[in-house]
Amino acid sequence: MKTGFHVFLAALIALGASWCGFVLAPVLQLGTEKQAAVLNSSDIYPIQRPGDATLGLQVYRASGCAACHTTQVQQDGVSCEIALTSLGKNQPQEFKKFIASLLELPLLNSRSNSVTAQLQDWSGAVPQIIVTNLDADAANDLLQHINAAGCKAEVHVVATGTDTARSWGTRRSVAEDFLWDDPVQLGDIRIGPDLADVGARLGNADWQLLHLYAPQSVVKGSVMPPFRFLFEVHKEKIAGVPSPDALHLPKELAPPAGFEVVPTDDAKNLVAYLLSLRADVPLYDAPFTALQAPTNAPSNKK
Amino acid sequence: MNDINTQDAGAGTPDAMIDASCRVPLLALFGGAALWLVVGLTLALVASLNFHMPEKFGNCAWLTYGRVQPAANDAILYGFAIPAALGVMLWIFARLGRTELVLPLVPVVAANIWNLGVAVGLVAILIGDSTSFTWLEFPRGSSVLLFAAFLLIAISAVATFGARRRRELHPSHWFLLAALFWFPWIYSTANLFLTAHHPVRGVTQAVIGWWFGDNLVFVWLALAGIGTAFYFLPKLAGRQLQSHYSALFAFFTLMLFGTWCGIPQGAPVPAWLPALSSVGSSLTIVPLIAIAIIFVKTICDSTVCCKGGPLCYIKFGTVAFILSGLMLIASACPQISRVTEFTWFGPAQIQLQLLGFFAMTMFGAVYYILPRTTGFEFPFPKLARVQNWFSLAGLALFILPLAVGGVEQGMKLQNPQIPFADISNSSLMFLRVSTTGQLLLLLGGLIFALNVFGLTFKWKMALLKSLIAAIKSPLEIAEVKS
Asked: What is the model's pLDDT at position B482?
């Protein structure tokens, strides 16, 4: 370190290496990322959000929602569960005993040796999840035994982890989920719950609007500040007849008689964006068994 | 081995002339910094009040938490930390080089451009024009102003460095020169890739954002702050820096490893990115240990008592840097990050780095430099010591609850049986304690601003007096002649 040039060279090498690693390489790897195929389906994912949801993304940005909410679900791993789809000629009571005897087998003791709680007072309705938290080998083994007894069952792959247990999502968030977003707002603190899958979880636009206007009225103990500035209070155009957009507020929050609270375009767009947030299709890098037909297109019911 | 005491004195321009050449640029930079510090801490307090009375701010878009919080952070980092560091840097370059500041008017102009950029950026965030990238919320126009102002100051700094009379370099030179080089690179990269007309697609934005955030808040602040500390610690403690070679080692490893931190472990990106980042973060322990050893060896035998003066601030700053570095490393470890990710632990680390380490180091440096450059004592020297206690108590009350609350929040988040509303309500208690800390920090900031502006006022009054004297005196002579 004799001259300034030496310092410059050292800094150039150190910062240059990190620039190549964390700027250039991700741009090369992810910059040309394309839509991915949905597992067991001919669909591709993600589809561009509808126009109002794209505008809503900008309201989300401007209001700084990402200061309190993440949009990234985490996952520990996957496990398998077995769903019975047909009893064949067996009786429910016999089947329960049969399953209990199967679970005694040493091979299956690796992870789980108990049936689901619902199976205790189960009367034979199918489909029914019978065993959860198995690894792939044990699940296949158990499936063979069940099939051999004349029943039909299938193995479901489910994501495990606290976020999915809180039903914040069905799988972890992956790079594909954010392909069309600009700016990408992952968020880094959970003062509020994760929103990666909020459209699937809380898909009612009226509920969302009410929650934005008065969070504590719909979620008890919420710490979210109200976003009243996204709403307007004005006189009913026709006295006694509220406009179709007007919020149905509880008495203590309702405006004076003859007035109504209506969402601005920003509020409607923001809700459209929230409802479009749903990461509920299985992908190659985040597989799970979709139980209903995946709703690929972001729902836009308002 | 460089001897700090002989390096700083000896041949070349005398101290008084060097200090005088820095006077106006430093007053411009430090004045702006003090103002933005108060603005930033006030905004932070408002953001925190959102948790005490959410209903109060519901009707006001520009006071909502999501806008005030980033505005507060940016006001402190861009408004206070960077200009203060640049001012200290100019002075250290002039002093170490035994030369007067070259192009002294350029930093004055640049300081005004910089302050304009910060003002535009803050207003933009508050009216909802933020870019939403952490530490890069300022919109494009404001970023251009900041970038131009930084380059102007860098020109003056590099010219002063080039004109130095003592050719050999002090360890502070390495750190501060690297910081001068660092900022333009990372700031232009981040702005070109993220806020330009055609930003990169998808999560690449997030990766570049994390890279920028780490390089700015961890590496840049470390380069500028530790560079300053390595100048002042030996000087104030009356010892030599222990040692030149350890400092070289710390410098290299900080740049090599520190630049790879910052990508969270659970991020929805290809797995090699968080893995590589985790390795880089764990290796960052090496420069931290080196800096800790240098710090302890340099000040341990010192008999100088700091009594709440500059040495106290800088000692505390260095300790806070090591603590915040350890927190950063801990949160990059996959086992720990499972708990601390997405909790208040992250903000606690950032605030410790920003207010605990960097701001304290800068307070110390400014309290040392300003009286020498202006030739006046601070108007309230006792309050400067009071500020030290306010800052210490404020930091403890602000950061400890956030860190502890963050860990508690993380442990509860791990248990899906605990409803989310209960978790956010139980962290409210910690937030309320931390608001008290923020209030104390704001008082500290006000004292700092009072001292800086009071000193500026004293200097301006003296200038005015000498001006009046200069106007009056020729008249008297003329009267005598007539």
From this structure: 55
